[in-house]
Amino acid sequence: MPPNFFPAYSVFLMIMLIPVPRVVCQDNHLFVSCGAQYECGNMAISYPFWGGSRPNYCGHPGFELTCDGEAPEFTMNEVSYRILDINNSSHTLTVARADYWDSYCPPQYFNTTLNESLFSYNATYTDVGLYYYCPQFTIASSNQFNCPNTTGYYTTLDLNLSVSTGNCGVYVTVPIFKSAATAIVSGGGTLTLLTDALNGGFGLEWNANNSLCRECIESGGHCGSISNQFTCYCRNGLSPSTCRKSGPYVSRKIIIGMVVLIVSFVMLGCIGIKRYSLAVKTWVFWKKESEDDENVEAFIRNYGSLAPKRYNYSDVKKMTNSFTSELGQGGFGCVYEGKLPDGRMVAVKLLSNSKGNGQDFINEIASISRTSHINIVTFMGFCFERSRRALIYEFMPNGSLDKFIYNRGSSDESLNLEWKTMYQIAVGIARGLEYLYRGCNTRILHFDIKPHNILLDQNFIPKISDFGLAKLCQKTESMVSMTHARGTTGYIAPEVFCRNFGGVSHKSDVYSYGMLVFEMVGGRKNIDVQVSHSSQIHFPTWIYKQLHLGKDLTVLRSITNEEEEETARKMILVSLWCIQPNPSDRPSIDKVVEMLEGSSHLLEIPLNPFMFSPQNTPQDPSTASP
Ligand SMILES: *[C@@H]1O[C@H](CO)[C@@H](O)[C@H](O)[C@H]1NC(C)=O
Question: Any transmembrane segments, and where (predicted)?
Fold first, then answer.
């Protein structure tokens, strides 16, 4: 084992523990959707506001808009505010209370109470006081207005009522501009001026990570938030602050550039300058026209009879009823429910309409059209019309496994899987992976095994899906060369991430599989483990200790009998073996199936793979050098 193996692994574990917001649709899809503005009346509004066609991840919580046909409104503490004007550079807006629009008699009485962490008043406001259900007043009739059930009175700071208002049944304060208050006073307090003042509204400044958003926009991004975390959507991915200039998109271009250079030199040598310049011209034209489109087309042509059915975009649109029913969002696009002309239900994955996903598209078709196994999702066709790309699969009524892991313990009973079912799912996924490695001439490494990519049919039979990152290799190849890390944080094997850990191979999928099974077992860590302050206990370390001390697992609250205990023990032991940092310590996937199907008493307890979790390394993380 290399000497720098363990420090590197502890850094790896730390990186894994950094919470990464779950990415919904493909990056570019997010970038595009958050670039759209909310339109209502003659206004177009962007971050921090969201609503309508702007999904919540394009805005900030608390800034949802609705449109009453004329103007956009937001609601806070039961009062709706109509947006009259907005200034993005100063983060200010002018709003008026919707219930006092052209009226003094709202159906219900509320004060103006804005959430102070989101909004602050600017200096130019003052309150108008509105009184209802008062004892008889002796004041100027100009301060009086009539409501269906009562007479109302109003004051501004400068225009006090001559009688105490303390006895009035209802008192409401509504902010207005100071200039409007002055106009009321100097105009002698006519109702027209009051209406003008209320309709004129007041000024507010919003506070929603303003400076972060400014930086994001300046770097070419669109602002938004995912689970309350500010997020900057960039052309080529997400960022917590600003769009970096380099990224996978650029590096891919550099690679293409280098390949072109090399090919050019070879051509120069072989066919002479004259033909070469012609070839370059053709190439430039081709590049402008289609970038990676041509690759995909060529791939489909070469695929011949193996190529699955091809659909037009209009077919896909018809199939999904114009993308009305969204089933979910995967790593590379949104998934919609659809129906084939023969009535069969399908799931249609619409890939983000960006260039550069050609390789993912090829990976997906190349991998999945070769497979036929109960634990691999059935591929039914595809659509490829320039940037419009879709993949069509069999429909999975129970959706993806993550739903059952992360919502477990919720009141919705249907989301709580029995141990028996969890075990069957674990075995099914292992069988699917075994098939990918052994079942066909070409070995397929998936590289993105995680709960979101495991679909469940009506009988909870798991099906591996999403082959966008897959790699096909000859069966004789035991190690795979890769240009960049692929996978999802939390499931990537350390060797994919950092070469110090060994070569990348099918054992890398075994690692991801182990993480997945461990999550299935531990999904309810904070609810099910009967330990006080359980949230502070590092679940993996805790469970490892239980096993090591020979304790039984009935402390996992959902375990009710011996059989379930045995199942849980097997799943935990197998997953601990699979997530060993050193690939050669991990079992092969056929061995995993064997381990799961045998008795847990035959299984030894592996080394603690979490030895370097933050729980056990209390020192300053900076001392752990890579
Ligand atoms: C509005 O606030 C004032 C105090 O600032 C209070 O006296 C009044 O009852 C409140 N009105 C309503 C409708 O809650």
Answer: 6-25, 254-274
Question: Is the alpha carbon torsion for 298, 304, 308, 314 positive or negative?
Answer: positive
Which pLDDT value is given to residue 25? 32
Query: What span, in angstroms and rounded, lies between the C-alpha atoms of 125 and 129?
Result: 13
CA 592 to mean position of chain CA atoms: 31
Q: Which of 14-23, 275-284, 300-309, 392-401 has the highest mean pLDDT?
A: 392-401
Say which residues have a Cβ less than 8 Å from residue 473's Cβ, sequence separation at least 6. 442, 443, 445, 480
Q: At what angle do helices 589-597 and 419-434 cross, to 10 degrees?
A: 150
In tens, the pLDDT along 89-110 reads 899 999 999 999 998 899 999 9
Residue entry with tokens 């891919």? 252
- Best probe residue, ligand 1, of 79, 109, 167, 171 (max atoms within 8 Å of C-beta): 171
Exposure string over 534-568, b if 16+ CB within 10 A, otherwise e: eeebbbbbbbbebbeeeeebeebebbeeeebbbbb
Helix axes 419-434, 562-578, angle to 10 degrees: 30
Mutate to test the pocket of ligand 1, among 79, 97, 110, 111 (most ligand atoms within 8 A of CB): 111
pLDDT at position 624 over 50 = no
Q: Beta strand 222-226 with 326-329: parallel, antiparallel or unpaired?
A: unpaired
Q: Which fold has domain 401-623?
A: Transferase(Phosphotransferase); domain 1 (1.10.510)
Cβ atoms within 10 Å of 175's Cβ, excluding its own: 23
Active-site annotation holds for 102: no
pLDDT band at 251, cuts 50/70/90? very low
For the chain, give the number of residues.
626
Q: Ligand 1 centroid to 171 CA: how many Å?
A: 5
Query: Which runs of consecutive H residues, i.e. helices, occur in 478-610?
Result: 494-497, 506-522, 525-528, 539-548, 562-578, 589-597
Domain positions in the chain are 64-207, 401-623
Identity at 597, one-letter amino acid code: E
CA of 80 to the centre of ligand 1 (A): 17
Q: Ligand 1 centroid vs 610 CA: distance in angstroms?
A: 57
